[in-house]
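Assemble and predict.
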Amino acid sequence: MSNLYRQIQARMGKTFVLLPPYLWMFLFFLLPFGFVLKISFSESIIASPPFAALFEYDADEGILNAVFRLFNYQYLIEDSLYFKAYLGSFKVASISTVICLLIGYPFALAIARSPKAQQPLLLLALMLPFWTSLLIRVYAWIGILRQDGVLNNILLWVGVIDEPLLLLQTTFATYVGVVYAYLPFMVLPLYATLEKQDLTLLEASRDLGSSPIRSFFDITLPLSLAGIISGSMLVFIPVIGEFVIPTLLSGESTLMIGRVLWTEFFNNRDWPVASAVAIIMLAVLIIPIIIFQNQQAKQEG
Amino acid sequence: MMNSGTQSDFIRIENIVKKFGEVTAVNNISLNIHQGEVFCLLGGSGSGKSTLLRMLAGFDDPTEGRVIIDGDDISGKPPERLPVNMMFQSYALFPHMTVEKNIGYGLRRDGVSKAETKQRVDEILELVKLTPFASRKPSQLSGGQRQRVALARCIVKRPKVLMLDEPLGALDKKLREETQQELLKIQRDLGLTFIVVTHDQEEAMTMADRIGIMDMGQIVQVGPPRELYENPNSMFIADFVGSLNKFKGVVQGQEGDITVVRLSEEVSLKIHTGFEHNTGDEVMLTTRPEKLEIFAADSDAKPTTQNIVDGTVAFVSYMGEQTNYSVDLGGGVIVRIAEQNHHMSTKVSIAAGDKVKVAWPARASHLFSA
Amino acid sequence: MPRFLKFSLWAGFAFLYAPIFVLIAYSFNASRRGSVWGGFSTHWYGELFRDEQILSAAWVSLQIGVMSATGATILGVLAAIGMVRFGKFRGRTLFAGMMSAPLVMPEVITGISLLLLFISAEQLFGWPAGRGMMTITIAHITFCSAFVLVVVQPRMATMDQSLEEASRDLGAGPVTTFLLVTLPVIFPAIVSGWLLAFILSFDDLVIASFTAGPGSTTLPMLIFSKIKIAVSPDINALATIIILIAALGLVAAMLLSRRRTD
């Protein structure tokens, strides 16, 4: 009797705890993708909202008609702009991920190997810029990179250059902005795995005859693979859809798909095409997202 | 190589000092370690034993002094260039490598060919009885197996000296005894020199040929286990090794080799010291619990020791292999006595509150200046 | 530490902080032309506080931030309890997936999908009627709760479970145990989670742009529309204030968590 009661109580507790987040995420995260998919098969019309209905109920026949129009996807294939934009995003995301890794790894290692008492302070210093608006920090780079900006002024003053360089609205500016904005996302998971590493493993490797550099490649690096994967995914996936940075820093130099989606949606008001763009982006990202989630699940377990 | 089997200054530690800022962790230690012996550094935490070990392995540089191993001054050399290997307390097995890869790691770093590495790893696996586990990862092994991998990983390199940091600390009691014997057998068979660091005096006593007891960065006494136990050169050593009765006393007089010490109004003891003591000196008197014998007051046994003291049993605890008695001798003197339970004799009946006689041999005690 | 590591530490911090110091310096520049130093001035701060538009957008963002952070914290903490304490429940993989995907999901995708949901729901049920602060808040709660979970879950997982068992043993029910034992232990993580959610909501431009309606212009939306056109020095002043508040908040959060763990 009391056992049954306890079981009921436990089940109710479980439901009470899990149902709200479960339902919420289902309704507002998972379900919406269905609507994006649906509208990607729709037709753009001048109305509010600006797309044609997919399902039409024929009252005479008593049947529900559905018209799936594939021409949005056909359009994406035919117009090379989209392919170039996907490719541009992929290139920027890949190269930025590598740069973030190259800068972020020694950075994270340096924090993890600092005296334990200093580490919270260093992490705080790392987090602080991240806690101030991304928009504003990207905007700050405009002030640095413009032709009459800080960097050109310094270079002119030092005498490295005679004429101000064109830095803003270049691919260079895009990479600076992306690496700058996403560096903490690389450093934090790397730090988390590096900080947990048992330093006696390094001593053991030295003891067995490895130089410090050899020990790094034999021990430290392979044991931080989880952090490398998490960090890389935390940079690569969102950068694919990045909108703010290319809009503010790239000018016409770099075509990225996030910006294209935005333009289709807000400027051209072609919601079905924007939806199709989003669906293809999602399809491309599904594998990286699964890799990321497996990594997350492994770290829990 | 062979004739150096008895080389008594195989490792020479000369006036070594290690300071961390203001703190002196190792304070001017000089020590020789013989080839082929098991030398134990025994001490509590913070005694400097680990720091000394780390300097011998090349992880830390001494602030002063030098270490010479088989004629080579190792000062300033990084650990990877020393003919010394360390078995870490945590074993420090590489979690991403198989047992085989772990053991072969050091050989590969020395430039040993793949084929020879394989052959030597196989030999060692055989020796430590881990052949079936060669392709497992450390996480798939038991504690005892991990310990053997850690050992194999070191000895496969045939180091001149093997350092073992608390080698049995992570094993449970049953496994420790087995492992200890295996470890010593391998040490003898391969003729290795072991330096063992431990805080566990039992471990040190059973493994070591010689023990160096450390305290506050210094070595307080060096010697074979028996010597440290029977003839400690200080109160600290006596107290550190084994259990001990300690009493404050005053020297009453001297009769040849025998010193008379008064512990309280009721209790005075004759102690064989071999030294002259001045009457009136305050001393500490120490006695091991197993050196004393207890008799019921009405027992027929006639103890023949110089001291026979009357007392009352305050406490009895039966431990299985032995029984411990606390006996109140009067005047606040309470002595602990340990008796082996080999004869199921008259003493079974001794209980708390009983009147007893304590047989206290003159040679059972040591005197230290208070 | 090898010199190379030390160098990358300081170079990394220089890289992260250079733009921030440039912003702060510009905010006190009397000249409108950013490149020329026209002397020290607090002119732009005065300008900022007279700008009704900015003040009202800030107020909108603040309200959305507080509501979103609170909602996301509730959902995130519930999800953390579920993930840590209930072990394997049915649909755990899906749940874990839904709770972690927003961490990496490109904002444009989240934005467009939520907008289409809101519009379709309005067509079908008449709710939500139009878009505004409420739709932005729902959108922010959705992606912020994933971040709260990331912050709270490890604290929850490393918490000594025998504390809860002791409480149950001493006669407290599960709810009382949670309120009196679990909650105080994970409180620093909850505070960090709330602050992170607030900052993410307060900073978000993309998702808010998709889900906003007329009259619900958030601060980032306003800033974006200003800086897209031209450099506007009052934004430097605004940025300086935001940086200052974030720094104070972060330091306070750290001191709080340090005092509680001591």
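The beta strands of chain A are 55-58, 63-66.
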